[in-house]
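Dear all,

This email documents one entry for the complex benchmark we are building for the journal club exercise. For each entry we list the sequence lines for every component of the assembly. Then comes the predicted three-dimensional structure of the complex as a token string, followed by one or two observations. Please use this as the template for your own entries, and keep the labels exactly as they appear.
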Amino acid sequence: MTAEQEQAALVRASQQGDRAAFGAIYQQFSRMIHGILLAHVPYADAEDLMQDVFVRAMRQVDRLREPAAMGGWLASIARNAAVDYRRRLRPLAELTEIGAANLPSRHAFEVMDILQSLPETYREALILRLVEGMTGPEIAVKTGMTHQSVRVNLCRGMKLLREKLG
Amino acid sequence: MSEEYLWDKTGEPDRDVADLEMLLGQLQFRQGRQPVRQPTRRANPAALWLAAAAVVTAGVVIPLSQRGAQTDWRYSARGLEARTLRTGQVIDTGGVSDARLESSFTGALQIESRSRLRLVASADKQQRFRLERGTIHAVIWAAPGKFVVDTPGARTVDLGCRYTLHMDEDGTGFLRVETGWVAFEWKGTESFIPAGAACQTKPQRGPGTPYFADASDALRAALERFDAAPGRATMAAALPLVRKKDAMTVWHLMTRVKSWERTEAYDRLASLVVLPAAASKDSIVRGETAAVDAAWNALDLGSAEVWRNWKRGW
């Protein structure tokens, strides 16, 4: 069974209520969704929002007609969730800090701020590549974009990032 | 710069890209990693499930090869959309503590966390589940005998009631009845458990002797010994410990010993309740079903006829 056939089987099983199949989809796409969200929302909220994206997807998966479009469909839900997030901006009172020892370095956040200031098209591809560790071909398969588009976005985005980092 | 490395990580590594990978990799999503900030608001159970899905699948597990017919049973849990159960499907609640199954024609089940319940059959005549482990709280409004739960130690037949059934991993079961009554049956051994009473089942042994929840510890211990080795000696040890209320327990003891051992239990039962002529000592010793049923009916806990009718129809 090819990867595409396997994904199609997982999508169809999910549409029939198979939670285990949806769990497999979650595993396959969680890094991609996390990366896309990171392009739009603060790091601290990306993981929480990612869970919301999958809950939304689980409830609406029966609306997906083309199993091969799963990645693009999930990416679209993630982008919409990020838009909703910016509209409602959750109050900080709901969040509790944990030990600083668990925090990534300050420098990582500084670079992430610069990444998030890049045009949306470039930053998504760059975050998926540099933060989530996906390759260009993997990004293309997961998001449903063409290899050519991903390649262009990565190269142009990296050029812009280098300029901003000086 | 090497575009190939940026594209697919092949070729000579671009130093800037490699440094950024190293730095930003700290922000990568990793399953099970402690989040940087932890929301204090109540977590969405569905989101919790999704997080757990990567490790252990909770909720409804559906073997694709066993997809059965749609039923009237609706499965729900907080934060999850209600959905219809098919025959053959298994509910494995994992950490979900508020799972619920409801059928408008039969009743409702509250299923505790760490429980595994399979819908075996669903038809007008019977709704049959198998509890493999965990705890269910059942409220049944279907006609007596229609709702059945199989366990490794016994078949549980609802005779119109509300009850809790628990099953350990090793197949030991425990039933407590709140209203109405329930029948436990395994290879011809039957226990009738009325409201306020409880009963244990063991794999390969079947249902034990039921007792009221407020029975003395001494009586319970004596019943455990009797269930492990039914006979005149263990029965004789239990009989002096019963109260008038425990006549139901005595009736069960009487029906589980050999015919020539029943006299002692019969005398004890007759001292606790007024037995009708149809339940004479001789007919009980001979094991006549009508006499045994008449003795049960004298307890005023429900008619044995309900059970006999159910068995005939099964």
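Observations: The radius of gyration of chain A is 17 Å. The longest strand of chain A covers residues 95-97.
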